[in-house]
Amino acid sequence: MCALPKVNIKKVHSYTGHQDAVYTLESGSSPQYFFSAGGDGQVILWDLENFENGRLIAKVSSSIYSLCYIPEIDVLIVGQNYEGLHLIKIEEKSAAGSLQLGKLAIFDIKVHQGLVLVACASGEFFIIDLKTLNILKRSVISDQNLRRIEILRDNTCVIAASDGQLIRVDLKSFNIVDQTMAHDNSVFGLAYHSDQEVLLTGSRDARLKYWDVKDGEELIESINAHMYAINDIDFHPSEKYFATASMDKTVKVWEYEERRLIKVIDKARHQGHLTSVNRLIWTEHHDYLISCSDDRSISVWDIDIVK
Q1: How crowded is the C-beta side of 51, counted as CA atoms within 13 Å?
Q2: Beta carbons of 209 and 200 less than 8 angstroms apart
Q3: Measured distance CA(53)–CA(35) in Å, rounded
Q4: Burial class (CB in 10 A: 0-12, 13-18, 19+), 185
Q5: Could you give the CA distance from residue 120 to residue 103 in angstroms, rounded to a whole number?
Q6: Whole-angstrom Cα distance, residue 105 to residue 162?
Q7: CA 78 centroid distance within chain
Q8: What is the second-level CATH architecture of the domain 6-306?
Q9: How far is Cα 190 from Cα 167, in angstroms, rounded to an integer?
C-alpha cells in the first residue's frame, strides 16, 4: 500500500442564502455555476467566480429534494414535493412545462437519451418522454421510498431504495433486470466509476460499499465509513478520489483505488457543517468540492491532494 497523500483543506466560502435546510445541489451550464434547493422552496443559481448573492431561479410552496439540469437545452427540472415536475428555461427565465405525478415526494431525477427518470416516495418510479412530458411507464418497484438513480454504461439504471435494495432497470424495455439486497436499510448515496464499471453505495447503516456492476451486482468491498448515515457520494473529476457526506456532520475524502480514507472535514478542524451534510458536487472549477447541509449553508472547499 502506498503512503497516504498529503491533503490540504481550505474553506473558500460559505453561502447562506437559504432560509431552511439545503437538500440538493446540481451542476450548471459550466463548472463555475451550480444550483441549490431545499426546505424553503427556493431554487438558487450560484457563481463560483462571484461569491456575492445568488440568483433566485424559482420559489415554490413546498420543499425540494431534487434538481436536474439539462445543458443541451438550458432547462432545469425541479422536483417539487407533492406538486410534481417543473421545467424552467434558465436564460429566458420562463416556464418550459410541468407534470403532476401525484402527491409524492420526489427524491431524484435523471435525464438520459430523451428520457426523464424520477424516483419517488412509496416505491414509485416514472419514465417520462422529455419532449412531450408523456409518462411512458409508471411502476411501483419497491414497498419503500426510492432514493437515488445512477445511469450505467450498458443503458440500464440502478435505483436505490429505502428497503436496502439496488433495483436495475433496462432503459430500452423498461423492465427490471436485477435486484440486489445491498444494505441493511436505506441506500441514500450512489456514484458510478464508468471506466471500471464500479458502483459505490452509501447507506443509513453508515457503510460504504464497492460493487462490480459489469454483470449484475457483485460486492467487492464493504467499509464502515461514518458514524451515521451516508447521504451522498461524489467523485473528483479525475475519478481518483471521491467524497462522502454524512448525517454525522462530516465530509470524508477517499482514495478510490486504495479504498482508504485520506481526510475528514469537520467543524472542529475546518469550520465544517453544524448538522447533517446532505449533498455534494466535486466540480471542475478549481476542483472545488461543494457541500450543503441541514444547517442552511453551502460550503465551498479547496482540496489540494499531493501524492
Answers
A1: 9
A2: yes
A3: 13
A4: middle
A5: 10
A6: 13
A7: 14
A8: 7 Propeller (2.130)
A9: 12
- Tell me the pLDDT tens digit for each residue of 262-305: 999 999 899 999 999 999 999 999 999 999 999 999 999 999 99
Domain ranges within the chain, ordered by starting residue: 6-306
Q: What is the distance between the alpha carbons of residues 302 and 307, in angstroms, rounded to a whole number?
A: 16
- Quick: pLDDT tens for 79-97: 999 999 999 999 988 999 9
In the numeric block, the cell 456492476 is attached to 213
Which residues are CB-contacts of 15 (< 8 A; sequence separation ≥ 6)? Answer: 36, 46, 51, 54, 297, 298, 299, 300
How many angstroms separate the Cα of 76 from the Cα of each of 70, 160, 296?
6, 23, 22
CB of 157 closer than 8 Å to CB of 151 = yes
Assign 1 a pLDDT band (cuts: 50, 70, 90). Answer: low
CA-based nearest residue to 143, from 164, 173, 114, 172: 164
Smallest CA-to-CA distance from 263 within 285, 283, 243, 236 is with 243
Angle at alpha carbon of residue 133, lines to 54 and 128, rounded to 5°: 95
